[in-house]
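Structure, all two chains, one model.
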Amino acid sequence: MSSVPLFALVGAGLFCIGLYALIVYAHLLRKILAINVMGSGVFLVLATLADRTVNAAPDPVPHAMIITGIVVAVATTAFALVLMLKVAEKTGRAELPDERTG
Amino acid sequence: MEALAATVSWDACLIVLPLLGAIACFAWPNAAKKLALGTALAVLVSIASLTIRVTAAGAFRHAVGAWGAPLGIELLVDGLSLVMLSATAIVGLAITIYSAGYFKADVSSRFWPLWLFLWASLNALFLSSDIFNLYVALELTGLAAVTLTALAGSADALTAAARYLLVSLLGSLTYLLGVALVYHGFGSVDMAVLAGRVESTPVFWAAFSLMFVGLALKTALFPFHFWLPPAHASAPAPVSAALSGLVIKASFYILMRLWFEIVPADYSTFTNFLGVLGAAAVVWGGLQALRAKRLKLLIAYSTIMQVGYLFLAFPLAVAAAWRGALYLILSHALAKSAMFLAAGNILYCAGHDRIESLDRIAQRLPMSLAAFAVAGVSIMGLPPSGGFIAKWLMVEAALKSGQWWWAVTLVLGSLFAAAYVFKVVGYAFTQAEAPHTSIDVPAAMEWAALALAVAAVLMGLIAPWILASMEIGRAFPGAAIP
């Protein structure tokens, strides 16, 4: 049983590492990967917390949610990569410019 | 005929029709305009039929495929979802008519499927009563919105879209982590089931905080607003109208539903903090709008200000304030889309939207300028507009609950709005230093903008009917004001 909170903590840790990378790195590919690491963290939390009752089969509903989440993640990642290539094509760099607008 | 109308599930039509329309537009790009207009009208008919049913028989739940909660996904139609769906349908029809003239052939074939996908996902979001299904709808809405932003194809639009996408994904992942914790703590994702189970435990507050941060990012609450001005200013005009009028309201709608249905009790420190953020958004948005050099950027900052008003309802916490906030969502949806469409006309005609070089727009585009000014009446909150009713309800709530400082914020916001609307109108009448040629704007585009602006003002005149519709199947939380 003690492994359950451990994996949940690992998931939360992955989420935080991803968030850190998302903020710190400028390159869009790193940002997209960071989002994916965060997503994996969330899925790990979902999978771990499915084990809700002692000595019973794990709850299948979170697994269904993870599958939905993975489908969403794959689609968004593919789209994000295309968008990154378009940005690189137009601006010459796969990075976001500074926040200064207006 | 009537018996047939009674058996159709109009709520499901609201999701299925735009989805089918989107696929049809993708398959037959040459007929896309007609298909999209047909879809928009069909959605309007569905929402009218749904309104008739709900007004007569009250709110209802629809277990899709006869699989009810807790395992299946249920659609919920009550007053709150009904008014959001109606606002989406009205704004959606105007945007559809407008876009038929706005886009050139190459962009047009990509616009129509995406726009109908966006519409379908917004409808799905407003009908969901399941916090995981809301995540899916939120993600679909975000993806469609980002793709539409990128349609303009310029370097500005693409970088704005990339930033919007990252923020949107960050927001929905944070929300999803909250959903995971809620499911762990209370064993369900259905709002009605959760309402009976949720207790004020640390797990719940951790989950709610995550969901709140995710949704606040997507709603562009100050200080999470940084992504909004570039995205809304660089998207094509009809897309900006949909983003500002509808998409940011979707995440606020989820927040409102969570707050009404499952949050156990409100804590005044937390709600006051939200009020302070809202007030900061009003001041910051107002100042930036006054400083903006470009018309669409000005309108985008005005949206940040209006989002600030919405969060003032949390500390006010009386039923009248919530009615006011919802009324503001509706009137802002109409008025802000009208403003963006009018700005689109000006951009189309003049080829730029630099406010100081608006060259005699009043003579060239009298209807579009009128649309901008009339929408401005509602944004400022002058009678008899919908914006006036909203602010009146909120100011009344602030004064009667003894929190006069929020009333001051609301009045200050109106002054800011008056200042930036008149700044634009002033430049529109004068001759610019460098006069330039203009391109004729199709009449349908001018009418679409003006019709939305007039609708925003008329909303003030049919207030009793709309206020009664909001309350179908729900009482707003907080004490009633006598």
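The longest helix of chain B spans residues 155-186.
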